Request: fold
Amino acid sequence: MVDTKGQLASLLDALASEPDTAATVVVCCDEESGGLGSQRLDLPESLRPAEGGIVLEPTGLGVSVAQSGCIDLEIRIDREPRHMAVGGVSAADELLRILELLRAECSFLRHTNPLVPPPRVHLGVLQAGEHLWRTPATAAAQVSLTLLPQVDAAEARGELEAVLSTELGESGKGSYRVIDVCEPIQVPQDLPVVSRLREAMGRGFRLTGMPSWTDATHLLLRHGIPCVVFGAGDLDSAHSDREWVRVRDLVDLSSILRRVLRSY
Reply:
């Protein structure tokens, strides 16, 4: 509900309450699979908001002007299996060592930004082992490394690949593949749309950052539309088994969006 059905319900309620206000609404598909909808968006110039737009995502009603990006990759380690009692470095041991090495060697993971949480190395998928008493012959993982705003994604990828090529390529006992690179972004805090949200929210207004990729990246970098990320509920419950959002927060979001629409 929080990501993003509830946000859309609030938007539709706000639009229904302000039928005389013109607004451009874009609903995109595949936001979590490369953002193909926003990537291939064909929006006429006349409908592009010159003063900025709003991407609806759960931000706890904070106005996010900064957004993290990431490098997603796949790592595979191969080792000769043996009886577990013999010991030695298994494929799983080596994989974990590589992840710790990335944390230590990649300088972009030490970057900071006051609006978003620190970078992290997220181990999302792990496959290793066939039997408890046999060391894993193969260990494979899908990993995501955070890119904070102001980090150059191409430079970060080059640094990452230099470490992995040295550790895996030269040994011949491992490989890696970059799955995706998502640019981090940051938009000016004095965007007109930010000012409209500030007026609509009053003392409840606060600036924040989005620690995950959203369609705001494609809207800015591919289509020249600077957007803030804004919405009800917390990202913490998104993708969980108990995704939820408070009804009163959706009501508040609808009220804020109505006031923003009226300001036009």
Summary: The beta strands are 53-56, 63-67, 69-78, 121-128, 138-147, 174-182, 185-186, 207-210, 227-230.
